UniProtKB/TrEMBL annotation:
<keyword id="KW-0808">Transferase</keyword>
<feature type="transmembrane region" description="Helical">
    <location>
        <begin position="136"/>
        <end position="153"/>
    </location>
</feature>
<feature type="transmembrane region" description="Helical">
    <location>
        <begin position="331"/>
        <end position="353"/>
    </location>
</feature>
<feature type="transmembrane region" description="Helical">
    <location>
        <begin position="159"/>
        <end position="178"/>
    </location>
</feature>
<dbReference type="Pfam" id="PF02397">
    <property type="entry name" value="Bac_transf"/>
</dbReference>
<dbReference type="InterPro" id="IPR017475">
    <property type="entry name" value="EPS_sugar_tfrase"/>
</dbReference>
<protein>
    <submittedName>
        <fullName>Exopolysaccharide biosynthesis polyprenyl glycosylphosphotransferase</fullName>
    </submittedName>
</protein>
<feature type="transmembrane region" description="Helical">
    <location>
        <begin position="68"/>
        <end position="89"/>
    </location>
</feature>
<comment type="similarity">
    <text>Belongs to the bacterial sugar transferase family.</text>
</comment>
<feature type="domain" description="Bacterial sugar transferase">
    <location>
        <begin position="326"/>
        <end position="513"/>
    </location>
</feature>
<dbReference type="InterPro" id="IPR003362">
    <property type="entry name" value="Bact_transf"/>
</dbReference>
<keyword id="KW-0472">Membrane</keyword>
<feature type="transmembrane region" description="Helical">
    <location>
        <begin position="95"/>
        <end position="115"/>
    </location>
</feature>
<keyword id="KW-1133">Transmembrane helix</keyword>
<keyword id="KW-0812">Transmembrane</keyword>
<dbReference type="GO" id="GO:0016780">
    <property type="term" value="F:phosphotransferase activity, for other substituted phosphate groups"/>
</dbReference>
<dbReference type="GO" id="GO:0016020">
    <property type="term" value="C:membrane"/>
</dbReference>
Length: 519
């Protein structure tokens, strides 16, 4: 069944609907009917039908796992308080604690609903979905704290102290699990939303490349409306179904789930307004695309001015309270990590010392914030004097740009290969973090020779401290091209938030465990 769905969506993406004179969505329905299959994610021609099918199912599953996470954490908290294991004042009688626990659980579930943590537009997105769960939990904590203080009631304290952190972890794990499920489904060509792209052919082509070339986007462009449409016209394999002026009628007729409008002289403000009127009684989403790439949502603010909607883009800031928070997180995180990993560090020290000549710790000059150099620490993974052999191996480099990388570097020891695969060799950099030379999360720390080859964009990496991990680490590590690594680092530099750091640290753990892109 999954193979049928995958093939079907591939056909839709190539615009095979034109071969029979029918629209892509109608052709998709016909193929499924001919196969005698009923697939929940295939358009039926009814407005929003396919989106309703999988989003409703996923929302129910999220509601179930959220409820289990909240109730489970509250039950654990009630058991600890009623048995006297945890007592922060107030009555410990079961009736009182169960009543308080029920109130906390109900308020928590209500908060998750009010904060729209299961909004279909967030499904599979990740960061914003997790952030809303954080916000709902934080507001509950604040509400309970104020309630306890104002009314002098101590009973909720113990329950909140245990239930909130425990429940938050379970909530996030549940969201992550369903997100991975959704990504697998989308890789099979299902659980996506059909898009009618509106704008000039060049803009439509860009949307097709961004959406149809990325399984995780959740969108598939299956039709287009361009100025001066010609019968049989295609844009990157997607059939042109009509002119821009007819976009609303075409979307309604074909059962598209989204209409994505690219701003241009062909799509005026009046045209967008009329398109919104055409779609207002349907379940079709109207989306406006912009040319603002690599700018995170928190930096964008829309404000009206004399009937004109202005998109304000906040300038990146590299100092102030936000970075004070980052420094505090770095120090606390590095100290905790060093304490927890002390047995591992000692074991690796012994193994490296026995692996051959040379010191246990390898020191290398790297460039940090504002171009200042520092001595970066790593466990030795190469034979002694390996840094002097780079020139002899330069022609064999597989790294992009000024980076020197080799998958089968002859200088790496057998022990070093294992340490590199799981990034264990980088653990001494926690000391660099404590010294204030590095951050837990940031751009990749470059060599001075690499910095001399930096362009204008790459120079922005030096506006913040380099990191032990970062977008480059979870985005492919050594498998990334030079341009990709620069783009990821610059995006991080300009759009950093504490939540992004926490998310990247969690993603790094997965990338290290599976050894993605490490050599």
């Amino acid at each position: 069944m999954s193979g049928l769905v995958s093939d079907l969506v591939s056909d839709v993406r190539r615009g095979l609907g034109a071969r029979t004179g029918r629209s892509p969505l109608s052709e998709a329905r016909a193929v499924v009917e001919e196969a005698g299959a009923v697939v929940e994610d295939v358009a039926t021609g009814l407005l929003g039908a396919r989106t309703v099918a999988w989003t409703t199912t996923l929302r129910r599953r999220l509601t179930l796992t959220d409820t289990l996470a909240v109730l489970g954490s509250v039950v654990v908290a009630v058991l600890l308080t009623t048995t006297g294991v945890l007592h922060l004042g107030g009555s410990t009688t079961p009736v009182v604690q169960v009543g308080v626990g029920a109130g906390v659980a109900a308020a928590w579930l209500l908060g998750l609903a009010v904060c729209r943590t299961r909004d279909r537009r967030l499904m599979g997105e990740g960061p914003r979905e997790y952030q809303r769960v954080f916000e709902a939990t934080w507001w509950l904590f604040a509400a309970v704290a104020v309630f306890s203080y104002v009314f002098g009631i101590a009973e909720p304290r113990g329950i909140v102290l245990v239930a909130l952190p425990l429940g938050l972890v379970w909530l996030l794990v549940g969201r992550y699990a369903w997100r991975q499920w959704l990504h697998r489904r989308r890789a099979e060509g299902v659980c996506t939303r059909t898009v009618l792209a509106v704008g000039h052919a060049e803009q439509v082509a860009r949307l097709v490349g961004e959406f149809n070339g990325n399984d995780r986007s959740g969108y598939v462009v299956v039709g287009a409306c361009v100025p001066g449409a010609v019968e049989g016209q295609r844009v990157r394999g997607v059939p042109v179904l009509g002119d821009v002026a007819a976009a609303g009628a075409i979307a309604l007729r074909e059962g598209a789930e989204c209409v994505a409008v690219s701003g241009s002289d062909a799509v005026t403000a009046d045209a967008v307004r009329r398109l919104g009127w055409d779609l207002e009684r349907s379940s079709i989403d109207l989306m406006l695309t912009t040319e603002l790439t690599d700018v995170a949502g928190p930096r964008l603010t829309i404000t009206p001015a004399q009937g004109v909607s202005l998109v304000h883009v906040d300038a990146p800031r590299f100092s102030g309270p936000k970075y004070a928070v980052k420094t505090a997180l770095d120090v606390v995180g590095a100290l905790v990590a060093l304490l927890l990993l002390l047995p591992v560090l000692l074991a690796v020290t012994v193994v490296v010392a026995c692996s051959g000549r040379g010191g246990v710790i390898f020191r290398q000059e790297r460039v940090g914030r504002n171009g200042e150099t520092f001595s970066m620490l790593k466990f030795r993974t190469m034979r002694s004097g390996a840094e002097f052999e780079v020139a002899d191996l330069a022609d064999l480099s597989e790294g992009a740009g000024p980076l020197f990388k080799m998958r089968e570097d002859p200088r790496v020891t057998r022990v070093g290969r294992f340490l590199r695969r799981y990034s264990i060799d980088e653990l001494p950099q926690l000391v660099n973090v404590l010294r204030g030379e590095m951050s837990l999360v940031g751009p990749r720390p470059p060599l001075p020779s690499e910095v001399t080859a930096y362009g204008v964009a790459a120079q922005r990496r030096l506006l913040v401290k380099p990191g032990l991990t970062g977008l480059w680490q979870v985005g492919g590590r050594s498998d990334l091209s030079w341009d990709e690594s620069v783009r990821l680092d610059v995006y991080y530099v300009e759009n950093w938030t504490p939540f992004v750091d926490l998310l990247l640290i969690a993603k790094t753990a997965r990338a290290i465990v599976v050894g993605e892109g490490a050599y």
